[in-house]
């Protein structure tokens, strides 16, 4: 019987390369995992523990039940009983151990740390850019629909922005003052007014990739700050990046998600993220996809 290969792909990072790492069904990437960790590696551990008689829901979240099951195996196999699944524990469970772990995101850091000192990684910025930017659309003034206002670049929505702030931002990314003045007239517009303005001024500006990137960098700090202020427990870089993306669109549900994460109710937090799929009262396919990507990033570090 041929063993199945499981692969993950490294991100097409800014100035970086595509890459792929694979491991067999019976292999586990060598990384000690413990209570509080989550992702596909935890799910693989839970499945191995179930083969040893444990009764776990293989949800990829290392909670108390998983920790107790690990301790039980360690005790049975004569290992040091600490509830942490490292190399010896995986070998005792019959798994071949792959010795190299996935690389952390570019511009980020490995391990957990307090969110107060964290910022989005380059991988995280690219993750948001790939979701928000759409050549031929986002580089023009456009209206995404729903409750959005006139939008430019990777999600710069002008509905709740002032004329002055819009003008200053446009000049900051390299547009001339006259063009910035015309764009700033979109301040406060929404629904049909926003739709009409975007249509009438579609060719007023055509942003370059560099300008779209600079616009994203100008916007993101406010959402980094929101995550730092609301999350009270240590995060990994992938978790922080996923939450910044979620806060970026839509920020209103971040309070509920943060409350669940602060209580270590990760499954509830992920469910709450997946509920944020409407705009203007309508379910949006694009938001369904985005929420799935964000949950995948949070749990598995998949920057796509």
UniProtKB/TrEMBL annotation:
Gene3D superfamilies: 1.10.530.40, PGBD-like superfamily/PGBD (1.10.101.10)
Reaction catalysis annotation: Hydrolysis of (1->4)-beta-linkages between N-acetylmuramic acid and N-acetyl-D-glucosamine residues in a peptidoglycan and between N-acetyl-D-glucosamine residues in chitodextrins
Domain called Peptidoglycan binding-like: residue spans: 38-93
EC number: 3.2.1.17
CDD domains per record: lyz_endolysin_autolysin
SUPFAM superfamilies xref list: Lysozyme-like, PGBD-like
Family per record: Belongs to the glycosyl hydrolase 24 family.
The name this protein goes by in its record: Lysozyme
Native organism: Serratia marcescens
